[in-house]
Amino acid sequence: LEDPRPLVVTGADHDAIARAAPSGVEVCLNGGWSAGRTGSVQRAAALRPGRDLCLVPVDVPLVPALVFAALRAEWEEKGLPERGWLAPFILEADARRFGHPVIVGRELAAVLKAFPPQRPLHALRAHACPLLGLAVRSASVLDDLDTPADLLRLRARPT
Question: Which residues contact 144 (CB under 8 A, 6 or more apart)?
Fold first, then answer.
């Protein structure tokens, strides 16, 4: 989790993203990005072997620092489980709605080697032990920025 160089894995528009990245951020191209998002996570796991990973999809852009801090504290409290999975959730009408970012233990991240890149990342949960959740108050963990309408909705959200 704690790395002096955060990692951004890109696909299309790699050059523009690399130019815009802040100093100190490692930017790496996933040449097979069009095959599926899991391929980018596999690339991150290969570049950070033996490390727990905090996975933050680009389409969940407004998660506040307090959520990251709470996830980190929970992960540490649970003993940094090697095969663990920790996701934030919002409680709505007594139901949990899980979102991102997700923390994946180092041994669980290694399981990704056997996944095809088009396989959804959530399939990795079946290999997790323990499977953990953390209640948070920020609905931003549920954001999914996929369309122009989503962008307008997020821009209109009060800060």
Answer: 59, 60, 150
Amino acid identity, position 88: P
Q: Which two tokens stand for residue 40?
A: 């980018």
Rounded distance, CA 146 to CA 59, Å?
7
Q: How far apart are CA 76 and CA 39, in angstroms?
A: 27
Under the banding of pLDDT at 50, 70 and 90, the label for residue 4 is low
What is the three-state SS of the chain? CCCCCCEEEEECEHHHHHHHCCCCCEEEECCCHHHCCHHHHHHHHHHCCCCCEEECCCCCCCCCHHHHHHHHHHHHHCCCCCECEEEEEEEECCEEEECCCEEECHHHHHHHHHCCCCCCHHHHHHHCECEEEEECCCHHHHCCCCCHHHHHHHHHCCC
Please name the amino acid found at residue 83: R
pTM of the predicted model as reported, rounded to 2 decimal places? 0.90
Residue 79: is it exposed, middle or buried by C-beta count within 10 angstroms (0-12/13-18/19+)?
Answer: exposed
